[in-house]
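Here is one chain, start to finish.
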Amino acid sequence: MNKVCAIVGVGPGNGLALVRRFAREGYRVAMLSRDIDKLKRWEQEIPGSHAYRYDATEGEQAREVFTRIRAELGPVSVLLYNAGGGIFKSAEQATLQEFEDSWRVNCYGLLATVQAALGQLREHHRASLVVTGASAALRGRAATAPFASAKAGQRSLAQSLARQLGPENIHVAYVVIDGVVDLPRTREAMPDKPDDFFLNPDAVADSVWFLTRQEHSAWTFELDLRPFGESW
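Its structure:
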């Protein structure tokens, strides 16, 4: 059976690094994002990658796109949910729409994606679901009310999935990204920061790859990733 990895939320940072890592390991990689033009360019650059337009906040798209992936690539055995984002405002400043938007991408989108892909994961003797989280899931700062609450909900959903699916040999893990990811826009915004201030997307991808290879008697549910200089 072909090895198939689906990555939801492929952008120029961690998402693209995950695509390259799993493609290098021989996976057929489904790249899912709202920006199909970028995906098409990366599809030409990365052997084994395949572009699919997908908006995780539009749940009705999920079953259709994962049906296509199964027909064109085979059943997914590794699902990486890297879609995220949120509004950084206090509870007083945030609008109800901003609060809902944060929830839709982090919680609603994860559930819709899992419901669409779970049948495919169950076709394999072993499978993995890894969710990209944030330190905000563990602490709600004053100016992060929409984002932190959505990430906390996402973490609880991932934990519920881990407890449900573990007996089926589906490993669910939550990766806490605690730090600033090294991207052109973050470098531009923080020109005075040294290299070791940033999280290297390739190193993040290596850690996610490690999670998908763990033997089931010693699974990790939650993995914190941060540069040594990050205050925690």
